[in-house]
UniProtKB/TrEMBL annotation:
PANTHER family: PRESTALK A DIFFERENTIATION PROTEIN A, PTHR43162. Transmembrane segments: none annotated. The lineage of its organism: Bacteria, Bacillati, Actinomycetota, Actinomycetes, Kitasatosporales. Residues 70-173 form the NAD(P)-binding domain. This is NmrA family transcriptional regulator. InterPro entries: Ergot_Alk_Oxidoreductase, NAD(P)-bd_dom, NAD(P)-bd_dom_sf. It comes from Streptomyces ruber.
């Protein structure tokens, strides 16, 4: 094991926990950090950041949920001797205008891309695993997924591929410097087609219904969501309907030298694990 330490932010989340496990298996020294991790890290408590950054050479960054703090974090990382940053971002970050999504993602990208450190940005499309976790598992298990999404397809990506790409990039200094990888699955499906595949694999009648963004927001608030977060998620669908991120890309193959996993592969695994059982 080398003495280099890789900091993984969002370490309890979808990507962070998968990436940390992969890096540890490769023999990398990992510092896993988030508000509830053993190494506490909070985007809104910068007084704790220097301690988290001590001795770190490479950092995986899950962006903050508001524009701004990433700039200060990157400056502190550079001062602490960090040499490389790998940022998770979203597909179409350049095309999302002044939406909350666009502002958050571009602010974090600007901070990383404007730094003097070696950087790589991973722009991911929507994860397959949104369907077997929050926010879609529960409505699917109840028999109907209602979303403000029409016929515009989405090239859903398997989180295992996002994690494989991130762990590879984090482990290969120099090779991915200044690159923005657009990461997608191998083909685009409409949300209705995705639900149809889930229904067939699960052997359960599950329907897809298109609703308006306002109806979707109201449903989420009725389920106890904070209104701003509910509007934020509904807004994402409105942006996707504009067709900014429909095309599959070769980002996974460029980094890994193999094709991305299919949506069907995810559906089979999740159905076998009982993800949508009632
Ligand atoms: N879902 C998708 O399909 C998709 C697709 C592309 C990009 N993205 C982007 O992916 C990012 C989320 O990444 P993810 O899915 O890996 O994580 P996630 O599963 O959403 O979990 C969020 C992580 O961030 C930590 N966190 C939350 N608030 C924090 C704070 N104030 N300070 C420090 N850490 C905090 C959480 O841990 P603690 O609670 O312990 O702090 C957790 O580890 C978002 O920027 C999203 O836009 C998502």
């Amino acid at each position: 094991m080398s003495n280099d330490t890789t900091l993984v932010l969002g370490a309890t989340g979808n990507t962070g926990r998968r990436i940390a496990a992969r890096l540890r298996l490769r023999g990398t020294r990992v510092r896993a950090a988030s508000r509830s991790s053993r190494t506490p890290f909070d985007w809104f408590r910068p007084d704790g950041w220097d301690q988290v950054l001590r001795g770190v050479t490479t950092a995986y960054v899950v962006p903050p949920p508001v524009p701004g703090p990433a700039h200060e974090f990157v400056a502190r990382a550079a001062a602490a001797g960090v040499r490389r940053l790998v940022l998770l971002s979203g597909r179409g970050a350049d095309d999302w205008g002044d939406s909350a999504f666009g502002l958050d993602m571009r602010s974090a990208e600007d901070a990383v891309r404007g730094s003097a450190l070696e950087w790589t940005v991973l722009r991911s499309s929507n994860f397959d695993q949104n369907f077997d976790g929050p926010p879609f598992r529960a409505p699917l298990a109840a028999g109907e997924l209602a979303l403000p999404a029409g016929a515009v397809p989405e090239p859903f990506i398997d989180l295992e591929d996002v994690a494989d790409v991130a762990a590879t990039v984090l482990s290969e200094p120099g090779r991915h410097a200044g690159r923005i990888y657009e990461l997608t699955g191998p083909r685009a499906l409409t949300w209705a087609e995705a639900v149809e595949l889930i229904s067939r694999a699960a052997g359960l009648p599950i329907l897809y219904r298109r609703v308006s963004p306002a109806e979707y927001t109201a449903t989420l608030v009725g389920e106890g969501w904070n209104e701003e977060e509910a509007r934020h998620l509904a807004e994402m669908f409105v942006l996707l309907e504009g067709g900014v991120a429909t095309r599959p890309t070769d980002g996974v193959a460029t980094v890994l030298g193999r094709a991305p996993r299919s949506f069907e592969d995810f559906v089979v695994r999740a159905a076998a694990a009982g993800a949508w059982s009632r």
